[in-house]
């Protein structure tokens, strides 16, 4: 690969970051976002697909809403750029690669679908989402939601095809995923430091009425400032920041950096994990790269988000990981030792609560706190069913089950969950949901979509496991051992939230899916990637 292309990519990315910073701080007008988007469109058309894909994944949190009109300023630049990447791929080779598969599908559709489960399940989910539109109270919201998820999936399809053609490209994507993970974590701590320099009103002016407006548009700005947000932990008159960095809420931020952690592990720990024949104890004595220092920093940021479901899921993952290694890796001794070695880093997550304690207890927003029990109270509230958010969540789950019982097959229609709670459909953007990803899918799209989504996620975890066992490259092996840990952590957390549907969380998740499905499906010389995948 020419060194000029990555150099140009890095230069454009740095300019992007500078403009991003100047726009969200109000130094430059939001009109510059339109110019930046046009510039990137031309770059994506000109640059090789490999460069466009790498640029996209490293820029996921730094795409901003385009101020198209005063009343329509929330359309994000990633939606245009993902379409550009997909269309370029489609017309320069994607259609030709797909054509044999289409022919095979129309000749023997049942055989085709049963052999290729991920395409079948993805198609089934899209079909059920479309069919559920017949049940919607607000058809426009439902159609927008279907288009939204198609738009979110486009880059993942392209990344998947590029990885199938060239397995080495997967390493480039993995490394590029580490970049936004680190940057947004650092920005989260910058945000935290600001709570010691201004009162709550000043903070809301800077973030609620400033940065968030520039990032996501006036509609979200109004919701966050006047309808509700998840930015603070309250106990009586005491409050602490729940770190959310440059994300819309304190739920999508920790999920994003959690999904970015496998990239950090692969970069930092491959030197240790590749030492075959070493015991778990010996692996700890192997020096890792300095990059491993980002692991506790990111784990601390997850704690400081104040997201209790994330805390509980992390502890559950820690316990489950050692059980998993004992049962499913007993015939793969080195892989078992490596998995336990990687799992032990989650112990740091537990220990970091001692670091988080004085931060939560410190006088933020220029207010003294009467006691230092805010963090311990928040931890105890996890199992307090009388606590306000817990009792509301239980009430929402009860209403969701009642709705599922009434409409088990097609639900209330995609994008229309507020109907379950007898709310206006527009409140979906303000967070009206089942507070459980799986129940939300069931309530909106029905039983078939619910089962298809669970099966897709289960088979994806199985594929991650197989990639870990079968892959010979230890950089990639380390990545997939880590994805087993942290994706499972995220999926457990989603039993209390639907934040995977946030665009940034979904985009990084779709990148992980592309990596997972693309590895170990590389084609032999002379066969295109699609034909290889369909065994034509």
UniProtKB/TrEMBL annotation:
Family annotation (Pfam families): Wzy_C
Membrane topology, record value: Multi-pass membrane protein
Transmembrane residue ranges: 7-26, 32-49, 56-72, 78-106, 118-134, 146-164, 176-198, 251-269, 290-305, 311-329, 341-360, 437-462, 474-493, 505-522
Keyword Iron: no
One of the record's GO cellular component terms: membrane
Domain O-antigen ligase-related residue range list: 298-452
InterPro entries reported for this sequence: O-antigen_ligase-rel_domated, WaaL-like
The entry's keywords: Membrane, Transmembrane, Transmembrane helix
Compartment annotation: Membrane
Protein name as it appears in the record: O-antigen ligase-related domain-containing protein
Organism: Candidatus Yanofskybacteria bacterium CG10_big_fil_rev_8_21_14_0_10_36_16
